[in-house]
Structure formats: structure tokens, C-alpha cells
Amino acid sequence: MPVLLTVLGSGSAGNATLLQHGESRVLIDVGLSCRETARRLGAIGVAPESVTAAVITHAHGDHTRGAGLFSRRYEVPVHATEATRSVWPGPEVWSWGRLECDAPADIGAFRITPFEVSHDADAETVAFHVETAAGAIGFATDVGVTTAALRSRFRRCRLLVMESNHATDLLRVGPYAASTKARIAGERGHLSNEALARFVREDLGASVECLVLAHLSRVNNLPELAEMTCREALEASGRSDVRVVVTRQDRVTETVRLDARGARPGLAALSGRQIALPFQQPVAKAPRCTAPQGRRRTAEAPV
User: What share of the chain is helix, strand, coil (3-state, %, to 5)?
Assistant: First the structure.
């Protein structure tokens, strides 16, 4: 049975990614509105009420915007660190699950280990190392720099979802205020195309088969430029076999499929399928996101 990863949307207007294996369906961040999250799930044939959990990287609105309503409407537990919960922007969630940095958490079919990365959220920001039946996935979408911990944890992954936020020159000549440019380019800001390329050249693990480029700026980047910069680094490193997938803000990105074949899932083949979007095409209307009157699941006790 394959492991599927689908980025529903990625960027400063909202981030959400779906991980699936069997009956386990876990959202990483719910930064799109509840209604839009449900709509995009429906567009790939996933009923929003079938989502079994959500995990949160940090408390910025583009990662949490729809989490409270989605959690209550579909009775989905939300897992976050204590620090993130302490600055939770609301609305309240249906039930909380605990995450602790550097401590693995078994959530459905996945063993998810959060670890702290460098970003300017009010509380800690975490990336995820996700162990699956088909090999490991690394997930880091808001990082100012690639820390030693990130490089070490991602080295043996098969699939990486990593930020490629801006092109350095486009940010420099772009319309943002000087203070905003400094924040974005700083060590607690966002990873540039060039910084990701340096990671590819110097630290990309031999087991990595696919790179998903995430959190692209619509002002200071271009999808084609981000992809070209990454591909050039891969070719310079003799890794042109690595597949590159570029995410979008306004549409669902193609699903990446990890198949486990034999005893060493790290050697399994990797494939993907293109979702028939963009959303100008008719899609099923999502249900209104209001708090449910009754409960279908038993909530975990608050922790």
C-alpha cells in the first residue's frame, strides 16, 4: 500500500499538506480556510471527515488559519507543541494532541518527530521527520537557515518537502520595505532558492529521490526560477535522477507516491500523478465550516 503526499496549497496565503497511508490521513498545517481546505481535499477525492489528525509546524496564521474550524467541524485532533499552543491564535480546536521536540509521536500510520528550526514565530517553529512504511519524509517549509539538526535528520529521507521561498536578487530589488527584506533574508526568516541549492550541493542525502519545493513567494520568486536553480544544483552534484516538484499557492500540487517494494523501502520506485486542476474548473462545493452539533469521535482528554 503506497504512502501519498499531496500539497494542497503552499505560500504566504496558506499552507496545508495531506499525508495518506491506508486509513491514516494527516494534515500538516491547516493554513487555508476551513472551506478551502475541504474543497481542495474534495478535489482529490478525499472526504474532509476522513482526516484523522492534523499536526502544526508553528503559530503563524498562514499555517493555522483554518485549523480551529476544520478541527471542530470534522472532529479532527490537532497536534502541536506546548509552546505553539501557548500562543495559539484561535479559534479553539476540537481536541489537542501533544507534540514535543525531538520526541517521536505515533499518529496513525506515521511516526512523526518534530524538531526545532530557525524561524521568527512567537513560539518555536518545528520541522518534521516522518517515518512511514515506505521510507522517511522530511518536511520543513519555514526555515531561515538549514541547521545541523535539519541536515542530519533529512540525510536518510526518500522524500523532502523544503522551502524555496525567494530568489535573492528578486528580493533585493523587490517592493518590500528594507526591514521586511532583512527579516525574510535573515537567519530566522525564509530559505532562498540559492540557500536550498547550497543544501542540495553539500548536504543532500544519497537516499533522497524527490524534492518538493514549497512556500514560494509570489512577489520575490517564480516557480520556473526556483525549479531551475534546484535542478542546476542537482546536475552539478551528479543527482539529476532526483525528481523536482514545485508547489503552488492557488492549486493542489501533483501527488507524490511512495511505494514500498521489498525489505528496503529506501530503494523503492517513486512516482506521481497530476491533479486535474486549477480551480477555475468546477469542483464539488464544500460544506459550510461551522461547529458540529454532535460528535462522531471520542475526543482525547486535553493535555
Answer: 25, 25, 45
In whole angstroms, what is the distance from residue 242 CA to residue 259 CA?
16
- Domains of the chain, residue spans: 3-273
The two beta strands, 16-21 and 3-9, are antiparallel
Query: Tens of pLDDT along 21-31?
Result: 999 999 999 99
C-alpha to C-alpha distance for 118 and 189, rounded to whole angstroms: 8
CA nearest neighbour of 91 among 30, 27, 47, 42: 30
Interatomic CA distance for residues 121 and 123, integer angstroms:
5
Q: Cα angle at 120 between 97 and 217, to 5 degrees? A: 100
What is the distance between the alpha carbons of residues 115 and 263, in angstroms, rounded to a whole number?
28
SS (H, E, C) 241-289: CCEEEECCCCCCCCEEEECCCCCCHHHCCEEEECCCCCCCCCCCCCCCC
Fold of 3-273: Metallo-beta-lactamase; Chain A (3.60.15)
Question: In the numeric block, which cell numbers belong to residue 83?
Answer: 509552546
> Which tens digit of pLDDT belongs to each residue from 182-237?
888 877 778 999 999 999 999 999 999 999 999 999 999 999 999 999 999 999 99
- Are 159 and 210 in contact by the 8 Å Cβ rule? The answer is yes
Please tell me the pTM assigned to this model. Answer: 0.86
